[in-house]
Amino acid sequence: PKVADWQEDVDNRLRWGMDQAIAEGLLQSGQSVIVIQGFRSGHGNSNTMRIVVA
């Protein structure tokens, strides 16, 4: 399904990636993950760092 909200889409993709990493044994549930993202695509636009819990 198409997600209208850009940040919600980013969060959904992040959650999927973390779920896959947990399933492959690369990440454990409860571990911290540092996420770097930008306000738009392309080089030089990364302006946000978050720490999320898997």
From TrEMBL:
Ranges for domain Pyruvate kinase C-terminal: 7-52
Top-level lineage group: Eukaryota
Keyword Endoplasmic reticulum attributed: no
SUPFAM superfamilies in alphabetical order: PK C-terminal domain-like
Pfam families: PK_C (PF02887)
GO MF assignments: kinase activity
Keywords attached to this entry: Kinase, Pyruvate, Transferase
Protein name: Pyruvate kinase
Organism annotation: Linnemannia gamsii
Source organism phylogeny: Eukaryota, Fungi, Fungi incertae sedis, Mucoromycota, Mortierellomycotina
